[in-house]
Amino acid sequence: MSARLPVAHGLWCVQVVQETDESAIYERGMLDRLPLDSWSTASSRVVLLGDAAHAMYAGPGQGARTAFEDAHQLLTALNAAWPDVAEVARRYEVCACAVQSANGEASQA
C-alpha cells in the first residue's frame, strides 16, 4: 500500500496510512457519469434533484450540499412560474443544471 502513496512531505496522514496494518485498509474506487441532458420527464411532472440528477464524489461531502442547492433552485422556479408546471421545470433545469455542471467539473479538476 505505501508504495502506491504519492510523495507528500510533512503530511501527517501519509504517516498514519504507512503505520496502519494493510489488512485494515481498503481501497474504494470512485465512479462518475456524464451529466444528464434533462432533469425532468417529458410531461415536466417529475424532476430530479440531488444524487438522482448528478453523481458527486462522496469524499468532499458534495452530495448533500448539491441536493440543497437543487432544492433551492426548484423552489425559486416554483415561486417564479407556478402554476405553469412546464415553465417551472424549464427554469429549474436552466439554473440547476448550469450550477451543478460547473460544480461537477470543478470537483474533477
Shape: elongated
Order of helices and strands: HHH
- Helix tally? 3
Euclidean distance between termini CA atoms: 25 Å
The residue fraction in helices comes out at 40-55%
Search tags:
109 residues; mainly alpha; 3 helices; 48% helix
Please tell me about this protein's structure.
By secondary structure, the chain is mainly α. The chain has one domain (31-108). It is built from three helices and no strands. Helix 2 runs antiparallel to helix 3. The relative contact order is 0.14.
Topology, please?
Blueprint lengths: L11 H8 L42 H20 L3 H24 L1
Helix pairs in contact: 2-3
Brief description of this entry?
This protein is mostly helical.
